[in-house]
Design brief:
Layout: E1 4-7, H1 11-22, E2 27-30, H2 60-74, H3 103-120, E3 123-126, E4 129-137, E5 140-148, E6 153-157, E7 160-163, H4 169-173, E8 178-179, H5 185-188, E9 205-206, E10 209-213, H6 228-232, E11 247-251, E12 255-258, E13 275-277, E14 288-292, E15 298-299, H7 311-331, E16 348-350, E17 372-373, H8 381-384, E18 400-404, E19 408-410, E20 420-422, E21 427-430, E22 442-444, H9 453-459, H10 462-482, H11 486-491, H12 493-505
Parallel strand pairs: 1-2, 1-7, 2-3, 7-22
Antiparallel strand pairs: 4-5, 5-6, 8-17, 9-15, 10-14, 10-16, 11-12, 13-14, 18-21, 19-20
Length: 522
């Protein structure tokens, strides 16, 4: 008998399943793609982390993961740590993170994390399966129906369901209230919110692909895509420059910065932004590999969710955009970027073995914004936005279940084109943003917390999604064992404190230090 069903093997989903099993809860995890781990693996996105991550600011299990990744590389006799862009061992020597590395290494780690529970029979994984139907009676979800690639269906019943899909599929299927896109300014009085709400004004999606830098004679030519003429001439609305350019949009006032394609030393460039293999870190012959998740392949023509096109159609068009960018880089990008004449960089070609596919593209589209629960509380910009006059000003909340920190990173959205990179205070996640107002046994375990569009831009990143999965799994297991529903737990101080003790025993910090100097180092 399944006690908890985790629907979706996103990064949060994997950690939710892990924590459930660690507490002896019989768990089912559904996985739609070959790789588990979502944005970290099957979507091909190296970790986006806050600047204090080397010392403090995440759960113990996240730090075990980071150490294991570094240990994997340092144990290889051909690897040398020659990174120059960031502190700590950074296998790809990229600058988006202090830990850029190959997604396959993370996927193996996550599989190994779950393996003991699979072997014991406590965990069942339904591979290549996605939710197609969810039944709800009143405040309780009764079952979720999964469909595999052969069209066979499995009906799953459980005491608790955790929506760990990247898109909040169960919320829509169960006909529960949810938020999507932008809330209006009148709803939460957020400084950057628009006057009118729009569910369609969502963050863009990106189909990540891997490029390698090799000798031009060894590079496989990329065929000209069907929609190339459209995307080559496409001008980014409200920014008034070609999408295929050296501009990086997403700042207030529709402003942008410009980055070179290649650079050296500490100069930031596009190529090393999300580089996962740095050739100079290897004694044997390896080529540079970079994961292309740039502003230049953000797809914003149509929203992914609840729009005029299906998710599959939007993903296909996003993939076509990325293929056009790859072709443009190889054939038509100006070599003036590197101080030369001519066009194209024939030394760049698709790295077909980097992402567990045959063509060098990710297994699924990268999703920045999900449907979000309407919870007992909603976390808003006003609560976490940084006062520029204060350098360190952590948010404190009585019912904290974890901590997070990342800028409100909004890529130009589907309707307004508004982007932002607003700074935030080190914040805490209140228990109440995990608890739907209209359901007793459904919990969010991915990017579907009760937060606004603006705050989601800060909570969507890897360490926080990891935390969300852990908290959701621990909350479900606590409620099952204590025979209490989440809303009742949150309404009583003694039960909240008991749950917070469970979180801390599991290695989850609840509060930020009064100053970085006072932090407990990992």
């Amino acid at each position: 008998m399944i006690e908890a069903a985790v629907i979706g093997a996103s990064l949060g989903g994997v950690l939710a399943a892990y924590q459930l099993c660690e507490r002896g809860v019989r768990t089912l995890l559904s996985s739609e793609f070959d790789w588990i781990g979502g944005q970290l693996t099957s979507q091909g996105v190296p970790p986006d982390e806050h600047p204090y991550i080397e010392s403090f600011g995440a759960s113990k299990s996240y730090y075990r993961f980071r150490r294991a990744i570094r240990d994997h590389y340092l144990a290889d006799e051909n690897f040398t740590d020659n990174g120059t862009l960031t502190e700590g061992c950074n296998p790809g020597d990229g600058w988006v993170s202090r830990l850029c590395f190959e997604p396959a290494v993370a996927e193996r780690y996550l599989r190994n994390l779950l393996q003991p529970h699979l072997a014991s029979g406590l965990l069942v994984v339904e591979e290549q399966s996605r939710p197609v139907c969810t039944a709800r009676t009143g405040r309780r979800v009764e079952w979720v129906e999964l469909e595999n690639q052969s069209g066979e269906r499995l009906r799953v019943s459980a005491q608790y369901f955790l929506d760990a899909t990247d898109t909040g599929e169960l919320l829509a299927q169960a006909d529960l209230p949810y938020r999507l896109g932008k809330e209006s300014r009148t709803e939460f009085n957020e400084r950057q919110a628009p006057q009118l709400a729009s569910m369609a004004d969502q963050q863009p999606v990106t189909y990540v692909f891997a490029l390698q830098k090799t000798e031009p004679s060894a590079a496989e030519p990329i065929p000209r895509p069907e929609s190339y003429d459209f995307w080559k001439s496409y001008v980014l609305p409200r920014y008034d420059y070609p999408l295929f350019s050296d501009h990086l949009p997403g700042h207030e006032g529709y402003s942008s910065v410009q980055l070179p394609l290649f650079a050296s030393g500490k100069t930031l460039d596009l190529w090393r932004y999300r580089r996962i293999v740095a050739a100079n870190n290897w004694r044997d012959e390896r080529e540079d590999i970079s994961l292309i998740n740039w502003a230049q392949n953000d797809y914003a023509l149509h929203p992914l969710l609840d729009g005029p096109q299906t998710q599959a159609q939007v993903a296909a068009e996003a993939r076509q955009l990325s293929l056009c960018l790859a072709y443009w880089l190889q054939h038509d990008a100006p070599r003036s970027w590197v101080g030369e004449t001519g066009s194209g960089f024939p030394e760049l070609s698709l790295a077909t073995d980097a992402l567990g596919t045959e063509d060098g593209f990710a297994q699924q589209v990268y999703v920045r914004e999900s449907r979000r629960i309407v919870g007992l509380q909603t976390l808003t910009q006003s609560e976490i936005e940084l006062d520029p006059a204060r350098k360190w000003d952590p948010v404190r909340c009585e019912h904290s279940v974890g901590i997070g920190l990342y800028n409100m990173d909004i890529h130009p959205t589907c309707e307004s084109g508004m982007g932002s990179n607003a700074r935030v205070r080190p914040f805490e996640l209140p228990l109440e943003i995990f608890i739907p107002a209209d359901a007793d046994n459904l919990l969010p375990a991915c990017k579907n917390l009760s937060v606004t569009h603006l705050v989601n831009a800060a909570t969507r990143v890897h360490p926080i999604e990891w935390l969300v999965g852990e908290v959701a799994g621990l909350l479900a297991s606590h409620c099952i064992r204590q025979k209490i529903d989440p809303a009742t737990l949150a309404s009583r101080n003694d039960t909240v404190v008991a749950f917070q003790n469970t979180l801390q025993e599991s290695g989850i910090p609840l509060h930020w230090p009064e100053s970085p100097a006072m932090a407990d180092r990992t």
